[in-house]
Structures are given as structure tokens and as C-alpha cells.
Amino acid sequence: MNREFVRLTAFEQAQLIRTKQISASELLKASLVQMEQVEPLTHAFVTICEKEAKEKARAVDKKIAAGEPVGPLAGVPYSAKDLFCTRGIQTTGGSGILSGWLPPYDAAAIERMNQADAVLIGKTNCDEFGMGGTNENSAFQPCPRNPYDSERVAGGSSGGSAAAVATYEGTVSLGTDTGGSIREPAAFCGVVGLKPTYGRVSRWGTLAFASSMDTVGPITRSVRDAALMMNVLAGFDPRDNVTGRVSVPDYISEMKKEIKGLRVGISPDFLKVAVLASDGSIEDHPIEPEITAAVMRTAEILRSAGAEVITDVPMLNTKYSVPAYFVISRIEAYSNLQRYDGLKYGRPSQNHPVDMYDLFAKSREDGFGHEVKLRILTGLFMSRKDFYEKYYLRAQRARALIRSDYDRIFDPMGDYRLDVLLTPSTPLPAFRFDRKGCDPVLIQYADMFTSPMNFAGLPGISLPAGKTSDGLPIGVQFVGYDYCESKILRAAYIAEQTGTVAEGDCPERCSELDMGQSPFGNSPCL
Ligand code: GLN
What we know:
Elements: H1 10-18, H2 24-42, E1 45-48, H3 50-65, E2 77-81, H4 108-115, E3 119-124, E4 145-146, E5 149-153, H5 159-166, E6 172-177, H6 183-189, E7 192-195, E8 215-220, H7 223-233, H8 251-255, E9 263-266, E10 272-276, E11 282-286, H9 289-304, E12 308-310, H10 321-336, H11 356-367, H12 370-382, H13 389-410, E13 420-424, H14 440-444, H15 451-456, E14 460-467, E15 473-479, H16 485-497, H17 508-511
Helix pairs in contact: 2-3, 5-6, 7-16, 10-12, 10-13
The structure holds glutamine.
């Protein structure tokens, strides 16, 4: 078995397996060898489920040998962020309070991946309950390293998933995104991450953080794999009552449609960050110039492919996204996390509780990490009756204003009539763990370009768009209207085809490894 097979896309791997050119068990073996070599450097996983993976791969091979039909991801090794419940496999949410927990059921997204015959190889590290953007808030340390520079963060909260996909530890991954947690780590690690429309993919069985914004989506190495995973994941689920009864197109054929005439917008409000000063005034702060340049380059690629690029699209309420996200996400987290009391959910404290209330308090004290406690307390404080108007109501008004910006630019009868909006995914590339040499303001506003889509419920895809002069990946984002994943995939596909990824693109980790000769001329990293 050639080790190079791990570098193929999910689409290619499934095709080779279906046509019996390789077996699912062989591919899994190659993935496990890759993990053995890379994982001590990457630290992407909390749990590796080798036994279950081998069983599933054998089952896929058996089906194929018997001539039975197999799913579209037949034999593709994948990982899932540790926020997805997996039956009989430890699910921690990156939290000490759930360490050792074996869920009695699979999350809806895991069920769908399983039905598609994908092979789950493990659970990836993440910030505790998704609260963070670096994985430094995970109870499981050392946390994932950036594949391009181990002194830097992989991003978060789906940092383990992005780092795993970038270093070929499994081909694709399942992530969650509440304020940018799929798109930010994807941008930092040089992979593709798609946050679908709110309600497009079921979240049933996924640990909740801020329910009005939580979404589930794919992290992949190619746009086509993101489309392929969306074919598997999207659709109505009566167990998640925000999912829509909206038909699911074939995203792969939609992605390949003509781009001529597609209206792509760029907004100056997405090329700076708006910093809220303590006196309530708002000041502009520049983003990394190399990131602006990547956005402009991508716009040019689309223009040459026949799209119409509209610059100067005003998105004036973007400046409220970070402060409003601070309020709303914490109030929802405070409410969602009440269930972890050591009785209903979570490990009970062994610290000699004297009664039930003491058990609740001690289990939460022992089980939750610092950031989670901080968010619970701020959420509690801001939702107090006397502060409700000052914080929560104002944040909800800001949220409505943010949504109104998108209604205006995507209105087919309006002034802009956009199909997609093109933005940076993040204002800066992956920063250092010690923060040295990295703009502290931009670090604080890392979610400014991703959280508005969680407020508005809209789909966004981050894809690699070249590198900084230091060799760090840059991500750009396409945003679409409700349920318009097809359009953002189409724009991303063209950008990818026309080569936004720099020549010789290759994570440090992989170039260090002796991978042997590839039979595939067009594989990345060769
Ligand atoms: N970084 C953001 C936060 O810390 C977003 C997290 C997410 O999308 N889950 O809340």
C-alpha cells in the first residue's frame, strides 16, 4: 500500500475504493501509520478509535466484495471534533467535566457519515465546549500545533480538526462553528472550512455552546470534498427543530456551474477592524496588508473567470459583531451549561460533597476550566434582570442590524444584488502561542469577519488563498444568502481551480516525513 494515498482527496479515495483499486482497510492502515508519525508533533487528537475504525473499514470492504452498494464516502478516514457524541467512544467537548464519558448514541452528523460509509478514526481536540479560538482552552494539553509553524496556534475551536486534515491524519473532519470555529482554524491551517446556513445541518447529539448560532460543517483539503460532505450532511432532521425542510441539491454539480455574471461584493468594512474604546467610541485598526492583498487577488481571479466584482459595498454594522457576540454567546452558554451538574450530566465530584447543592458546586468547580467559568459568570451577570436591557437587548438589536446589512446586499431587487460577498476569513494569520510579534488588537478581533455570519445565520466558506512572506496560510471567505451554499462553493471552486494556493504548498510536518514516490502527479505537497 502506497503511503501517498492518504494525500488524495476524499472524492478520489472513495472512487479508488469503490472500483476496488485499494481497500478501505489498506487506506485505514496507511492513515494510522501517518497518524503514528505526525500526531506526536501535531497533537490534534484527544481519542483515536483504531478498533472501531478497523471494524468499519472491514465492513465497507465486505460490502464491496459482495457487490452491495456503498455510500459516497466509502472507506474515507475522517475525524470529528470532540463535541460530537459518538456511541461508546469517549466524548469530552475538550472539558474535564466530561472526561471518560461514553455517549449512548451517535450525533446526527456522525450517523450520516456512517451511513455514507466513512470511517471514523478519532476525536479531535478543541477549546472547552467550543469556547476559544486557539485550543488553549482545552482541558487536554498539549493542544494542537499549527502544521506550518509549531510555535503557532492551529486556531479554534475546531483546531484539532483543521490540524489533522492539513497533516493528512484522516482526509476530512467534522467541525462546529458558533462564531468562526470552523473557518478560523481552516484559515490558520491552510485548509477549507464551510459553515453552513443555520438549520442546514442537524446538530442533534452535538454539545451545545450558543444554540442560536451553533452550526455543524465540514473541514477538508479541497472545495469538492466540502461539497461532497455537504451532500452527506445537509437535510431536515426532526430531532433538531431548527433544521429546514429545504431540498438538498447535488452540491458537486451545482459547484461546477458557470460563474459568468456571478455578482461578487467586497466591503471596506471587512478590510479593517473596528475597535471599541472604553469611552464607547469606535476606532479603525488596520488588518494585515498581506491579507487584504489575498482578498484582492481572489477578486481578480473571479473577475477574469467572468464574475462581476462590486467594490465599496457598505456593511456598516459589522463593527458591532465582536461586542454583540461577547454578550449573546455568553448568555446562551451560561444557560446551556447548567446541565453539567455532576448528576444529570458530567462527572460527579469525588471531593466529599455534603449535599446535592454541594455536589453541583464541587462538580462544576472541579470539572470546568477557567475560560468556561469566566463565560458562565459573565453570562449570568449580563442576563440579570436589571442588566438585561443594557446588555442583552442592545446586543440583540445589533444582531438584527447585522442581519439587515445582508438582507440589503443580497436583495435581488436591491442596489447591490450580490450572489456572494468576498471577505478575509481572519484579520491576521496564525499567531504565536506566546503572542510575540503579533498584533494584540487583531488577536482580540480574530472573529470579527466570521461571527457576523453566525448572527445572520448565513453560510460562509474559508479557503486557502496563498501564504504570507513568513509562509503562513491566508484564508479568504465567501459568504452567501440563506441556503445558498451552492453559490459560495461555486465561487470557491473557481478560486481554487485557478490556483489561490501557492506552488509547493506543504505543511512543515509533511515535508519532514519521507513519503516515498507518489503515483499521482497532481497531489499537493509533492
Ligand atoms: N472564538 C469564538 C469564541 O471563543 C468562536 C468559537 C466558536 O465558533 N465555537 O467564542
